[in-house]
Amino acid sequence: MSTDQRVSDGYLITVDVEDHATAGSAPRFREALAPLLAALERDSLRATFFVVGSLAPSWRSELIDLAAAGHEIGLHGYAHRFLTRISEEEFRADLTHGIDTLGEMLGHAPSGYRAPYFSLTAQTPWAPQRLLEAGFRYSSSVLPAWNPQAGFPGAPKSAFRWPNGLVEFPAPVFGIGHFGVPLLGGAYVRLAPRTLVNLAAKRRGNRPGSWTYAHPYDFDTTEPFTRIPDQQWWVTKLLFARRDLMLKRVVALAGTDARTLQSLAEDTNFVAALPTFPR
C-alpha cells in the first residue's frame, strides 16, 4: 500500500495471538494470520505479537521465523485469564510459565506483556511491580476509559511510566474524559464506519507509542458462522461481521517506519520524556 493511502503515519501494529475455535473445531489462528503476515512482508512492516503462552508450542517454527524477520514476540499471559479474576500469586506463576515457554523457543525472555482483555486496572495495583520483577521492560495492558469488561478510567491516554519505571502503552481510545472507545483496534476497526475510524486516527494524531491491535479471528474470512454457547446472538454476529475489511484497515493505520513497541521502550530519550502515573 502506498503511503498516500494510509490514514496515519504512526500506528504500530500489534496482534494478540489467541485461538478462537468453537468447541470441537480445530485451531484456526495459523491460517487466519496468513494474510496479515503476507501483508507485513510485502510492505516491510514490523509487528509486535503478544502470544498466549499455552499456544506457543503449536506455533513454534512460525514464532522463531517471525523473530528472525525482526518482529517482536511478547507475552499475552500463559493461560489468557483476566488479571482481575486471579490472585497476585497466580499472576506471578502465570508470568513465570509464560516467560519460560517463550524463552526456551526464542533464546531470550520477552520484553513486553499485554494483559488478557486489557485487564490491568485499578483493582490490580500489584501487577506493574510483578511485571518489573519478572524482567519485562514494558506493559501494554491498560484500557484508559470505562469499560464493562476491564477499564482504567483516569489513566493517561498516551504512553506513560508506572512509579517503578515500567513503561505502559495504553490502548488508544476515542472519546471524552473517562468515556472512550478503542476505535483503532480489535473488532472496532472493522465494525465502525471508515470515516469514524479515520476521524479517530486524525483526532488522536501521531502520538509516539500509538498502536492498533487485532486478533487472528479478525482476519478469518472463511470461518463458518457458529453461535457461541452462552453468548447473545447479536454479540456472536458482531464477532463475525465485516472481517473482509480488517486487513486493509489495519495496514492503512500502520506507520511507515518498521518499529515495534520494544524498540520504543528501549529508546532512552522517548522513555525519559514520559509522565509518571500515578504520581
Describe what you observe in this structure.
The protein is an alpha/beta fold and 279 residues long. It has a single domain (3-272), classed as TIM Barrel. The chain contains ten helices and ten strands. The strands form three sheets. A four-stranded parallel beta sheet has the order 3-2-1-10. Strands 4-5-7-6 form a four-stranded mixed beta sheet. Helix 1 (29-42) links the parallel strand 1 (12-17) and strand 2 (47-51). The termini are far apart. Mean pLDDT is 90; it is low at 1-8.
Secondary-structure map:
Layout: E1 12-17, H1 29-42, E2 47-51, H2 60-68, E3 72-75, H3 88-106, E4 112-113, H4 127-133, E5 138-139, E6 160-161, E7 167-168, E8 174-176, E9 179-181, H5 187-191, H6 194-204, E10 211-214, H7 233-240, H8 246-253, H9 261-265, H10 268-272
Parallel strand pairs: 1-2, 1-10, 2-3, 4-5, 5-7
Antiparallel strand pairs: 6-7, 8-9
**Assembly state of the chains shown:** single chain
Poorly predicted runs are 1-8
Strand order of the largest sheet: 3-2-1-10
Order of helices and strands: EHEHEHEHEEEEEHHEHHHH
**Shape summary:** globular
Number of domains: 1
Major sheet summary line: 4 strands, parallel
CATH level-1 class:
Alpha Beta
Proportion of residues in extended strands: 5-15%
The tally of beta strands, per DSSP, is: 10
**Class from secondary-structure proportions:** alpha/beta
Keywords:
279 residues, 4-stranded mixed β-sheet, TIM Barrel, 10 helices, disordered N terminus, 10 strands, 4-stranded parallel β-sheet
